[in-house]
Amino acid sequence: xxxxxxxxxxxxxxxxxxxxxxxxxxxxxxxxxxxxxxxxxxxxxxxxxxxxxxxxxxxxxxxxxxxxxxxxxxxxxxxxxxxxxxxxxxxxxxxxxxxxxxxxxxxxxxxxxxxxxxxxxxxxxxxxxxxxxxxxxxxxxxxxxxxxxxxxxxxxxxxxxxxxxxxxxxxxxxxxxxxxxxxxxxxxxxxxxxxxxxxxxxxxxxxxxxxxxxxxxxxxxxxxxxxxxxxxxxxxxxxxxxxxxxxxxx
Length: 250
Hints:
The chain is an alpha/beta fold. It folds into two domains: 2-105 and 213-248, D-Maltodextrin-Binding Protein, domain 2; 108-203, Periplasmic binding protein-like II (D-Maltodextrin-Binding Protein, domain 2). 36% of the residues lie in helices and 23% in strands. The protein has helices at 2-16, 37-51, 62-70, 84-91, 142-153, 157-160, 170-178, 223-232, 235-243, and strands at residues 27-33, 54-60, 77-80, 101-106, 108-113, 133-136, 164-167, 184-188, 198-203, 212-218, 247-248. The strands form two sheets. It has a six-stranded mixed beta sheet. A five-stranded mixed beta sheet has the order 7-6-8-5-9, sandwiched between helices. Helix 2 packs antiparallel against helix 9.
């Protein structure tokens, strides 16, 4: 009898796992880059109202999310802060290239703690000060990858590498600066709408790094995923994304 009860518990737990393995589930899961969390929370609430379904949001660095999907995470949609990780999923046959859209883009800014009193007019001016600089981890966080590209373009990465502090995502980088754990940090411009204890020092030139395109696609061409992608890519949702500081791609 105990074996039957145990087997029944395993079956029930398996059925309760939420993701996107079929189209009749009452809950779905989507994976989105941390920088998208605020607008996606708002968009998902609208989607849930219109479709009478629960959508769970899994957020982290885009590379971490991509690795989770590669390793079998049961999610419907992937919304990445770059094209690289999405292209890897296309190569791995987890995403159909025709399903990929790039609805928004972003830009990079350098922010400073209110306690830092240095005068910085461009990225090279960082070399004047012995300061700690936070950026995203360069293997899994696109913002960190873009930041490194800018430092490399200006031939200063090797000079400041010892002063770099790496965050697991852009929210961590922002928090380091806001709490004065570091003097400077590089984040997306969309992350700066609610700064309290820090401020933008300068906008980093777009020609020093790859274009910051956010890519969106359903996983394994799931029907649930396609519906969510269509909703996120709609004019209604793009208005929300624009309100949160993102650039709408035409």
